[in-house]
């Protein structure tokens, strides 16, 4: 390390920790289900443990475990020998775990797992190709080979596209809202104009009817005056005629009296 601080190796994330969509998770679950159903997991596990059991690393682990167990018993014999053997085994197992006895073995097993990962990957890719077709599976494989930087760049481009689309959608929405608002204002103005025209027509009609009523009343008054004038005129004529007749009768009577007196 040359005295420099180094980051620990990055731990491989679990599938549950990855930012996957529901469709991607469903695809992975389907592949794993098919993989297990075909017995691939059992086959790889058996091969891995067989290789480990046949290797010298198992003997080294067992020797290390026996040495640790002997040291623990010598260090505290009452703790491990007095209780029941099953309890003692559990206590020794816990001490071994805390003493990192299993750490090297876990690393060895991880190494064996890594050796079989390529076989498992090929089997899973074959299952995926059967599900979606070889062309789509190859596209997904190439996407999987992209570096973090490439993914970050693509994510940045997609983010820019989303932002641009969002801004464009906002402009369209604002334009649409402005058009709708203008349409509403025009409709309101049209309704006001229609209401004004309707009220104007009503007032004109009412004014016309009022004028017609006033004209009829004036004509009726004139007719009444004409009737009264005619009645008065007829009365005067009748009176004058009666007076003339009386005068004529008086004159006739006087004339007769005069003639009678002269005889």
Automatic annotation (TrEMBL):
<feature type="domain" description="BOD1/SHG1">
    <location>
        <begin position="31"/>
        <end position="133"/>
    </location>
</feature>
<feature type="compositionally biased region" description="Basic and acidic residues">
    <location>
        <begin position="155"/>
        <end position="263"/>
    </location>
</feature>
<dbReference type="InterPro" id="IPR055264">
    <property type="entry name" value="BOD1/SHG1_dom"/>
</dbReference>
<dbReference type="Pfam" id="PF05205">
    <property type="entry name" value="COMPASS-Shg1"/>
</dbReference>
<feature type="region of interest" description="Disordered">
    <location>
        <begin position="1"/>
        <end position="20"/>
    </location>
</feature>
<feature type="region of interest" description="Disordered">
    <location>
        <begin position="152"/>
        <end position="263"/>
    </location>
</feature>
<protein>
    <recommendedName>
        <fullName>BOD1/SHG1 domain-containing protein</fullName>
    </recommendedName>
</protein>
């Amino acid at each position: 390390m040359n005295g420099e601080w180094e980051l620990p190796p990055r731990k491989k994330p679990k599938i549950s920790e990855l930012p996957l969509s529901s469709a991607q998770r469903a695809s992975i679950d389907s592949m794993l289900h098919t993989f297990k159903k075909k017995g691939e997991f059992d086959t790889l596990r058996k091969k891995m443990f067989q290789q480990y059991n046949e290797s010298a690393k198992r003997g080294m682990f067992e020797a290390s475990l026996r040495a640790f167990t002997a040291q623990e018993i010598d260090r505290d014999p009452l703790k491990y020998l007095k209780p029941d053997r099953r309890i003692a085994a559990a206590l020794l197992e816990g001490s071994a775990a805390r003493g990192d006895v299993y750490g090297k073995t876990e690393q060895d097993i991880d190494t064996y797992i890594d050796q079989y990962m390529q076989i498992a990957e090929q089997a899973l890719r074959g299952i995926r190709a059967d599900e979606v077709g070889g062309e789509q599976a190859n596209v997904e494989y190439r996407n999987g080979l992209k570096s973090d930087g490439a993914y970050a760049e693509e994510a940045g481009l997609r983010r820019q596209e989303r932002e641009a689309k969002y801004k464009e959608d906002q402009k369209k929405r604002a334009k649409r809202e402005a058009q709708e608002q203008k349409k509403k204002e025009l409709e309101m103005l049209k309704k006001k104009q229609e209401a004004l025209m309707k009220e104007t027509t009503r007032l004109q009609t009412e004014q016309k009817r009022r004028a017609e009523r006033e004209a009829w009343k004036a004509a009726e008054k004139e007719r009444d005056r004409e009737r009264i004038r005619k009645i008065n005129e007829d009365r005067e004529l009748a009176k004058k005629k009666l007076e003339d007749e009386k005068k004529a009768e008086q004159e006739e009577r006087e004339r007769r009296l005069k003639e009678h007196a002269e005889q």
